[in-house]
Specification:
Strand content of chain C: 25-35%
Subunit structure (chain A): Component of the eukaryotic translation initiation factor 3 (eIF-3) complex.
GO cellular component, one term (chain A): eukaryotic 43S preinitiation complex
Number of strands of chain C: 42
Number of strands of chain A: 10
Chains: A alpha+beta (about 300), B mainly beta (about 350), C alpha+beta (about 750)
Number of helices of chain C: 8
Largest interface: A-B, 75 and 78 residues
Structural class of chain A: alpha+beta
CATH architecture of one domain in chain A: 2-Layer Sandwich
Pfam families (chain A): eIF3g (PF12353), RRM_1 (PF00076)
Subcellular location (chain A): Cytoplasm
Number of helices of chain A: 4
Family (chain A): Belongs to the eIF-3 subunit G family.
Oligomer: heterotrimer
Structural class of chain C: alpha+beta
Strand content of chain A: 15-25%
Helix content of chain C: 10-25%
CATH class of one domain in chain C: Mainly Beta
Radius of gyration of chain A: 24 Å
Chain lengths: ~300, ~350, ~750
Amino acid sequence: MAAASVQTPPARTDWAEDSEPDLATVLPPPQVTKNKDGTETIVTFFINEDGKKAKRTQRIRRTIVKKKENPRVAERRAWPKMGPEAGKPAGPRSDTTTLGENIIFRPVMGFKSGQQQEKAPEEDKKADALKKMQIKCRICSGDHFTTKCPFKDTMAPEGEAGSAAVDMDGGMGGGGEDAGGLGVGSSSYVPPHLRGKTGSGTGERMGGRERDDLATLRVTNVSEFAEEEDLRQMFERYGRVTRVFLAKDRDTGRAKGFAFVSYADRSDAARACEKMDGYGFGHLILRVEFAKKSTT
Amino acid sequence: MRPILLQGHERALTQVKFSKEGDLIFSVSKDHLVCAWYSANGERFGAYKGHQGALWTVDVDPSTTLLATGAADSTMRLWEVRTGKLLKTWDYPTAVKRVEFSEDGKQLLALTEKRTGHLSNIYVYDINPDPEASQTEEPSLRITVDELPRVTVAGISCLSKYIVTGHEDGSISQWDAKTGELIHTAFSHDENQLVSDLQWSADRTYFITSSKDKTAKLHDTSSLEVLKTYVADTPLNSAAITPEPTQYVILGGGQAAMDVTTTSARQGKFEARFYHKVFEEEIGRVRGHFGPLNYVAVSPTGHCYCSGGEDGYVRVHHFDPPYFDFKFEVEREREQGLRF
Amino acid sequence: MAPSFEQLDPEDDYDGEEEIDFSDLREQYEVRMEEGLDTFIVIDGLPKVTPSQKDKLVKFLLRKLTSVGRTKEENVFMPMNEAGEESEGFAFVEYESPAQAAAAVKALHGTALDKRHTIAVNKLTDIERYGREGRIEETYNPPQIAAFEEKEHLRWWLGDAEGRDQFVMYRGDNVGVFWNESAGAPEQVVDRMHWTESFVQWSPKGTYLTSMHTQGVQLWGGPNWSRHKRFMHPGVNLVDFSPDERFITTWSHRPMEVEEGNPVLSLEEDGKNYIIWDVATAKPIRSFVTLDLPGPTQDEEGNPIKKKIQWPAFKWSSDAKYVARMTQGQGISVYELPRMNLMDKQSIKIEGVMDFEWCPAPPQRDNIREYEQLLCYWTPEMGSNPAKVGLMSIPTKNIVRTRNLFNVSDAKLHWQSESAFVCVKVDRHSKSKKTTGTNLEIFRVREKGVPVEVVDNIPNTVINFAWEPKGDRFILITAGEVTQGVAVPPKTSVSFYCPEKVKGNAVGNFKLIRTVDKKNNNAIHWSPAGRFVVVATVLNQQSFDLDFWDFDFEGERDEKDKDLTANLQLMGTADHYGVTDIDWDPSGRFVATSASVWKHRMENGYHLYNFSGTLLREEPIEAFKQWSWRPRPERLLSKEEMKNVRKNLREYSRQFEEIDQAKKSSANKAVVEERRRQLEEWLAWRERTQADLLEERRELGLPDLSEEREALVVDEAEGEKVVEEMFEEILEEHEEVVE
């Protein structure tokens, strides 16, 4: 039932400790490879601005710099490393230390949060590379994002069903583009948020709200007095919930016993699935699993 | 500036602290681990193993010899920084949420959590700076907080005169550090918006508190008067004061469950926000965390700062010259005026 | 048997209103008219006749009287004088109903009987009301003339020193007028709750703001936004101004019910839907009934079919000398203003006419010196006659040009803003009646003989077309076939046209510059000054992009475009989620895009862009309904004066820039003062506390600096040590999204 990308965290103790969902568990650790010219290639995984898992590949060279320091500091520098670092060679280890993307941080008067954080010039190359990103719809392989596919509602992708009502209030903001199937297809489509815009574009795209049906869970054995809000709050712990559909009896308004919860991110859904399955709610124990495409 | 990402933890970070010279960073996380890093290049120095619950807090003494940690396993432990050796364990009925050395390193404060059946307690111990020496079991002061709401943060003021606490109802209280008597309570933050952090200025004569009410406030230590207020648009988890000559404060926070009412297309507000300490105006933000910032700390040298995030990363930033050169027009004016 | 439900005659519909007995209320509140006397009229000015002639006179009168209503000889009472020799010269006539009496008064009053006698006809009740003794003063008192009150300056907003434009926003229950401050927050001029009940509308020259209410329409203006005019039209739905703001048309879908004694409306207006008013006097000039469009009024099940009303139904000529209404399929009625009499006393018969449009500006046809206004109309195929497009000159009614069209399924008329061209977009169908393509028949009005240029080979249906204001270029949007079963609208293509470059002053033939395919755009909004245009997708849930184009880009021109009179360039694109309306400001500097709550509720509010597509401001506002820029009247400067301004622009702009800077810094002065104070305060406090702390430390025998602060101090004696640190240098890096 659990998706492959979730790692089980070590030695979990008191469940009461957890007050916030953990993002750290989900990403794979960085990978390092040594290159022939003495440099190293490091691949780190992170979640980008749009909430998608992304990887950063860096080629680095290690250099030794001599600095003058406070004598006590110098002394500490000379201490042998201890604990898990004992015996390891000098210098930052790539499994624990990586360099992030260069940020130009300059305090300004009248700072407005709408301004984009400037990236250093070499980052423009990266931005260019992203511009050439090929878009392919997962559903019909057309050159549009999956969410914009005209067949979205008729040909749901790969075995996950989305059912019924759209919850318009769910998950506004940051609706990332679902760039299904990168790298294939030779269209020259440039997604709007990457087109060269004059001035500070807003990019306030709430339309591309994503209801990734791969991240929809079916929750059964739901108490008949349950409400959508209860479910939303329970499941929000694990990530952004874009939609909650609680099946209700039309006449009485009571819950019929099952619900669908859609997440923005599949890994959130996976984590929620794992954690909420077996959760006691009301007088019943919930069953949570990934929603399968209905056979209609 | 290129932030250095420290990836030693598998769970969310709860606190990060610089050594007093700013060369080491100590990080603690819910993964039961305490790590030490060199701030200059992010190289990990080592880790301190022993706690059996999520770590909530850490502090280092002024000489960077002793390290104190508090955890959900209801213990406070004292370690030798250099070797990682566990020197002392104090047991309590509930989790230890804050530990702090006094400015002279001679006293150590521990704050234990309020839980059903147990009240918040503050313990102050006299500490022997010699790592080889044995440490006292009994506190020199114990304050049981029974009439005030749950204590969330605590610290020892300058001259070790007062103990200042922050509470879950947004209030700040001042206690006599010798007698444990409650002197004064100030209702600084919005009602029922808990105080999430309390950090001192370099000389501990004033301090900054952050709260879920989306503001951080600067207080005078002796009067608890609110000197400045910094308004953000997200609940805050932490706030720090940069050491002079820079006059900034850094705030960190963010909401994990997406706040639906905003129209920002960005993924949440996981940024460290910089404000001018005197003019209360926002002057910049630094992005990068993909989870809320749980703690921000500034090196006592003022050359770098680091933030511990819910995402399990510590990000260390060494400032570029523009950061130090930045001045408001009145500051520049004053500078030039003084020259003549 | 007792009547049951099934036996109820459907004709006797339960009309709720009638069943309720209002009679007691009526009794209480009804204005008492003289009972039964309102069917009487008094005819005065009759010749005095002898008894023997009386019958003849009565019969003579009856002929006239019965033309307006039903009456009989015995209901005509012509009194004789005391002596019985001759009639008094007046008569009483009783009609069947008061309405007939009123009609008689209207029709016959002031008409001539014969050469020497003109009758005066009045309602008896009127005479009673006005003529009874004591009602009218015996002595003549000259009417008081109110002292001259200076009215407010209606064009005050044009005098804004910064040349800002105003706009009105209707959100929730509030209507507010604001100055546009480009990037900053708009400066509020006025904001009132419940100013209007349905929507607001500016008059064409921006003088008035019109508000709609159940009782009628009100006009507000002047710096105080006082109510200037009121037009009582109960149940009004739509309003339209003449281009010069002298007249206003109001329409209600419910026919009016005018009561007696209505101070503004007379019985003339009873039962009518349209009223044309004179704005200055606020008096109705003429009223009309809605013409039902031909076609069934009920569908198969007997449900009434809602007909879409064409608005404005009364179209004004460019100088408001004429107003015309089309009776679809029959003809066009042209009325002359200000009296609203039907021109030449008859409508222009154009059999089968489907649509017509006046030219929007005085036309300047080659070699034509006399005054004329042009209207363009079209008729479909009828029997063996092909479809026709015609250009008619008013008032001569000469047909200046016609053109035959074949295989026409529909046509739309588009005048260029200066009446230089009128484009007829013709939807053609093949023999099998499927729409195949579109042609544009462009009448070049200014050229001799009004030649018609055809632009054909346009694939698919043209869903939108727009001329450049004051220019000779146009844009059209075509949409592909609607595929069955797909919920998504087909992709559209945007095509840009301009005339070819030719020698001299002539305008060349129209050529396609470029077509952009695979778009979702469905709306074209030109800047009022021309050159810039926003092509956008509105009212679409999945697409909401705005493309900003420049037709005269001053950069490099493409090789293939060198023979064209345009250099088309896409300046920028933007998005506005859920955009429903796009409006340029009258100066052509700004574009406001709004999402109205009348169309959807997802996110409402507005965005403000400059002409090149840079977002200047966005404000989401709940219950945002309407945005409308305040129009400006035509410039008063002559062409030379305008040329002069352009020439000296550099000097003028220097002045303006100085003003801008001064503005920015003066706003800051207050802030700077405040900061200075804050800094002083802070530093003073720090000094004090540091001094206090130092004192206390010394008193306690402690060193000046606490241990933790001491850590940072490097002793001279110790000196600094050299330390080796390993650093990573990034040589290359890139990022990509992972599946």
